[in-house]
Amino acid sequence: MEKFGPVRVGLLGAGTVGGGTFEVLWRNQAEITRRAGRRIEIARIADLNTARAGEIAAGRAEVTDDAMSVVTDPGIDIVVELIGGYGIARKLVLAAIENGKHVVTANKALLAVHGNEIFEAASRKGVMVAFEAAVAGGIPIIKALREGLTANRIEWIAGIINGTTNFILSEMRDKGLAFDVVLAEAQRLGYAEADPTFDIEGIDAAHKATILAAIAFGIPVSFDKAYVEGITNLQAEDIRYAEQLGYRIKLLGITRRRMDNGKLRGIELRVHPTLIPAKRLLANVEGAMNAVLVKGDAVGHTLYYGKGAGAEPTGSAVVADLVDVARMLTSDPGNRVPHLAFQAEAVADLPILAIEEVETSYYLRLRVADEPGVLADITRILADAGISIDAALQREPDEGENQTDIILLTHRTIEKQAIAAIARIEALPTVLSKATRIRLEDLN
Amino acid sequence: MEKFGPVRVGLLGAGTVGGGTFEVLWRNQAEITRRAGRRIEIARIADLNTARAGEIAAGRAEVTDDAMSVVTDPGIDIVVELIGGYGIARKLVLAAIENGKHVVTANKALLAVHGNEIFEAASRKGVMVAFEAAVAGGIPIIKALREGLTANRIEWIAGIINGTTNFILSEMRDKGLAFDVVLAEAQRLGYAEADPTFDIEGIDAAHKATILAAIAFGIPVSFDKAYVEGITNLQAEDIRYAEQLGYRIKLLGITRRRMDNGKLRGIELRVHPTLIPAKRLLANVEGAMNAVLVKGDAVGHTLYYGKGAGAEPTGSAVVADLVDVARMLTSDPGNRVPHLAFQAEAVADLPILAIEEVETSYYLRLRVADEPGVLADITRILADAGISIDAALQREPDEGENQTDIILLTHRTIEKQAIAAIARIEALPTVLSKATRIRLEDLN
C-alpha cells in the first residue's frame, strides 16, 4: 500500500516527551502508516545524555550526542525539537530550517519569544514548522484554530492551559488548603517541578496564550506584551468566598479582540487568576486537565478538553504533526487527508457487532411485590449469569401499597446474557412488570 | 497579497444552512481571504425555490433552479451540497465528482448510507469530499479525528450528537415533565421539527455515529449495521431514579473497538439512551449543545463541545472545509496551512493592550470596620467611577470582633478606572486593609 518511502525523522531531546513520542509512533506504527500513507520512522535521536537516548532507542534508532549532525543530515526529512528553552533549541531549529528540514516542536517558550524569526525563516525556505504539542498537550487546539474555525472572526479565547496550576487550585478548593501546602503536595506527586516558577507565576500559560493570540487574530507573537500574573498570592478564603457567590477561581490565559464603540481597539493578552461562573464547563475542568474555550462569531462557543501534558498526550500531538507533514510531502494533494482518515487502500472491513454482542452496563427498573426475598431472588439470577451488581435502590412502598420499585445498576456484561437473565427475572412470581432496561456507560 | 485568483463555489440548496454559509463567507470575507490565501466566492446558488435562493444571493451571486447546470459548470471549482436526503443529493454529488469538482457537504444521511460509493468515485477522480458540517455542526470533530488524533489507536467515542434529543432530555430532567409534553414544547420553540422522527428515534445520531466509526477505525461506512434506539420510551421516573443514583440519561452515539481477551473482536456501533455518571463533563452538556468524547490510547480522553446545529455554526464548518480545499488548491504545499493561521503577508500588527486598558469584571475583598454606612461609602465611590456592582456579600463579624469582610463583584470596567476607584476606597478610614482584587470573566 505504500506508494512512497518512509519519512525519516531526527529527534532532538530524549526526555519525557521524546520517549512518549518514540513509544507512540512505534506502538501504533501500522495504524499511523494506514493514515499517513507512508511510514514515519525516527531514524536518529540526539541528546547530550546518550545513555538516556539509548534507552529510548533500544536499538531501533541511531543515537548521537551531536544534534547539529542531525539537523544537517541529508537523510533526515523532519526534525523534531523537544529540547526546550530559547538557547540551543533556537539555534538548532534555525539550522534545521536553513537545511530545508520541516520542523515539529513542542517548545512554547521558543515560539512565544522567537516565533516571528522562526516562521519567517521557514516561509523563506518553504518548510513547515508545526507546533500542535506547544499548547495544551494532546488537545488539537492549534489545528482547531488554524483550520477548524477559519470561517470565524475569533472574538476571544479563555483557556486553562497549565495543568500544574489547575491541579493546585483544584486541591486548594477541594481540601480548603493553603497554596504552599498544596504546592508541596503537587511537587511530591510530580505535578509540579522542583523549581515551579514557570508554572505558578503564569509564565508557561502566557507563552501558550501568546501563541493562541497570534493564530486567532493574525498578529505576530509578542510575549513581551503579555500581562502575566500567577497564583502565588491566592488566599484560600478568596476561593471560599468565590464559591459562596457561585464562582470558581481558575488561572486563565485570555486573549480578546477588544472593540470600543464598534471600533477595533486592539488585542487583550493576559494570564491571571480569574473568577468564572461555577456552572460553566470550564469551571468544572479539574486536576491537571486542560481546556480551551473559543468564541467565534459564526460558531459561537466551542470547547476543547484533554490532557495538557505528559509523555504520551504530548507525544500524540507531536506525531499528529508528523503525519500532517508526511501527508503534505506526498505528491497526491487531492487526497492529502484521506476521506475516511485512513488511506483508501488501507480501509479494513472489521465486523460491526450485532447489539446482542455488545458489552455494556445496565440500569434495570422492576415493579415487585413488597415481600422478603425478592431482591435476593433477582440478584441470584444475575449472579448465576455472571452479572455483578454495582448499586441497588429499593423504594419504600407508598402508603397502603404492597408493591414497590427495585432499581439495579449492573457491571459490564454481554447484552444477550443480560437479556436472558432479565427474562428469568421477569418470570419470577414476585416480579410484577416487564423490566425497564437502559444501558449505562461509565466513560472512564 | 492574493497570488491566486478566487476559488469559485456553486451552492446547492438555499435553506437555513445555505443562508448561514453565504452570510458567514460574505461577512468574514476579508479575514477568510487572509487565512486561505485566496478569495472564496459563491458564484452560483441553485434551488428549485429560486425566490428563496434570490433572498440569500441578494444580487451577490447568480441564482438558478437547475442544480445540474452548476455541477457541470466549468467555471465552478467546488460544489457545496446542502440539499439533504439520499435522492437528488446523491445524483448531484456524483455528477459533481465526475465533472472534477471538489465537494463539500453537510449531508450525514447521504454519507452514512452512500459514503463508500461517493468516496470511491472521489478517489478515482482525485477530488476532495469534505464533510465537517455533517457531524456535530460547528465543532471541528472530523478534523480532530482525521488529523488531530492520527497518532492514536482510537478506543471509543461517545457523543451527544443530536441537539433536539439533548434539549428534550435536559428539559425532562430539569422540569420533571413527560416526553410528549417536552416534545411539543421543543416543536413550539423550533428545536424539534414538525416530523421529529429522524431526531427522536435516533436515526440522525446514528448517521453521525456511523461516520465517526468509519474515520476512527478505518472501516467503510455501514449505517445498516448500526443499532438505533431513540428516546420515545423514556419515562420521567427513570430520569429521576438515575439522578438519585448519581447518573444522567443522555442519547449517546457510541462506537468502540471491542477487545475480548486481548483480541480485536469487532466494532460496536450503537445509539441509545445511556446513563452516564453525573460528574462527567459530558453529563453536563445541556440543552441543544453537542459534545463528543474520544478515548485514544496515547492522548487519553479528549472532549469537543459546541453548537451542533443552526445556520451559522453549521455554515462555520462548511466554510472551514472550503478554506481547506482552497489552501490545498494553491501550488504552495510547504505553506498549505500558514504557520500563524493567516498568510504571512497578511499578518496584522494590531496593538496588544496594556493591562491598564483591559476591560474585565472584578472580585474585591475588603477588611472593614463593622460600622453603618461602610458599604454605602464604598459603593458610592464605585458608582462615581462608573463601575456598577453585580453582587455583594457582607459577612457577620465573628463573635467579639468589630471588623468584617465585604466582598463585591463588579460589572465590566476598564482596569485603570478600577485601580483608581480602589485607591479611593482604600483611603476610607473604615477600610482597614488593602483590597484583594481578582479579575472575573463571565465567559458568556
Automatic annotation (TrEMBL), chains A, B:
InterPro entries: ACT-like_dom_sf, ACT_dom, Asp/hSer_DH_NAD-bd, HDH, HDH_cat, HDH_CS, NAD(P)-bd_dom_sf
Residues noted as binding NADP(+) in the record, renumbered to the chain: L12, G13, A14, G15, T16, V17, G18, G19
One of the GO BP terms on file: threonine biosynthetic process
UniProt keyword annotation of Amino-acid biosynthesis present: yes
Record-annotated ACT domain positions: 363-439
Chain residues that bind L-homoserine: E193
EC number: 1.1.1.3
Pathway: Amino-acid biosynthesis; L-threonine biosynthesis; L-threonine from L-aspartate: step 3/5; Amino-acid biosynthesis; L-methionine biosynthesis via de novo pathway; L-homoserine from L-aspartate: step 3/3
Pfam families linked: ACT, Homoserine_dh, NAD_binding_3
Residues at which NADPH binds: K108
PROSITE patterns: ACT (PS51671), HOMOSER_DHGENASE (PS01042)
Primary enzyme class: oxidoreductase
SUPFAM superfamilies: ACT-like (SSF55021), Glyceraldehyde-3-phosphate dehydrogenase-like, C-terminal domain (SSF55347), NAD(P)-binding Rossmann-fold domains (SSF51735)
Molecular function per GO: homoserine dehydrogenase activity; NADP binding
Annotated active site: K208
Superkingdom assignment: Bacteria
Similarity section: Belongs to the homoserine dehydrogenase family.
NCBIfam families per the UniProt record, alphabetical: PRK06349.1 (NF004976)
PANTHER family registered for this protein in UniProt: HOMOSERINE DEHYDROGENASE (PTHR43331:SF1)
Official protein name in the record: Homoserine dehydrogenase
Source organism of the structure: Quisquiliibacterium transsilvanicum
